[in-house]
Amino acid sequence: MANKRNKVKFGLSNVHWAKITQWGADADGTPTVPVYGESMRLPGAVSLSIDANGENENFYADDSVYYVINNNSGYEGDLEVALVTTEFATEILGEILDNNGVLVEKNTAEPSQFALMFEFSGDKHKIRHVLYCCTASRPATEGQTKEDSTEVKTETLTLTASALPTGLVKAKTCEATDESTYNNWYKMPYNPDTTAKTTTTKASS
User: Fold this and answer.
1) Does pLDDT of 185 surpass 70?
2) How many helical (H) and strand (E) elements, i.e. helices and strands, does the chain have?
3) Which residue in 92, 124, 137, 192 has its CB near the most CB atoms, within 10 A?
4) SS3 of 121-177
5) Partners of 34 in the β-ladder
6) What is the pTM of this model?
């Protein structure tokens, strides 16, 4: 990716999701990292609005702020789409597709966790995001009679994005993101590389 910084962002497109199919575990059986299924597109993205959860708390000592406690509780908000796809309804919301091709919702349905990927446009390049561990609530059922003009009714999913056991909450691309990582963003949720970079120096002659 070219090292050009965006001045503004706008739009919303390329919404994808990847279901968490199972969890890795440490020696004590505590969940550690998720295993994601196939990345699927959720077409018809209209808007996304998520707010950060958790506020910093000040610890006072010696008559001053001695330490600031960072409480990152993830995000909450809404994703508005034209229509929720059958795949999302069955794989994530827990609905059942019966033998006659009818979607059935039961009160025992268990929603699944998933990663959510999406992008905002910018004046220089598109910014791609991933939320690593999301849950979604059922959308409302809404409609109205057709009048002189047709008003499209959308569906809104209420999202909760929490941290993985490793602490990961969210990642996004920027002007420093390498081209391969950027181009493969939607194949699977990005796995951060936080190893220290090594540099080599030439010996002076």
Assistant:
1) yes
2) 2, 12
3) 92
4) EECCCCEEEEEEEEEECCCCCCCCCCCCCCCCCCEEEEEEECCCCCCCCEEECCCCC
5) 23
6) 0.82
* Predicted pLDDT of residue 34: 94
**How many whole angstroms separate alpha carbon 47 and alpha carbon 10?**
11
Rounded alpha-carbon distances, angstroms, from residue 57 to 61, 64, 65, 162: 13, 13, 10, 19
For residue 179, give the H/E element and its range: helix 179-183
The single-letter DSSP state of residue 203 is: P
Cβ neighbours of 83 (radius 10 Å): 15
Residue 160 tokens read as 């909760």
Q: Average pLDDT in the 57-84 region?
A: 79
Cβ neighbours of residue 75 closer than 8 Å, sequence gap 6 or more: 50, 51, 52, 53, 131, 159, 160, 161, 169, 170
How big is the chain by its Cα radius of gyration, in Å? 21
Burial-class residue 149 by CB neighbours within 10 Å (0-12, 13-18, 19+): exposed
- CA dist 14 and 35 (Å) reads 22
Look up residue 173 and give its two tokens.
């691309």
Strands (E), 43-113: 45-52, 57-61, 64-69, 75-81, 96-97, 103-104
Cβ proximity of 192 and 172 under 8 Å:
no
Q: Please state, in angstroms and as integers, the Cα–Cα distance from residue 113 to each residue in 75, 124, 134, following that order.
A: 14, 33, 5
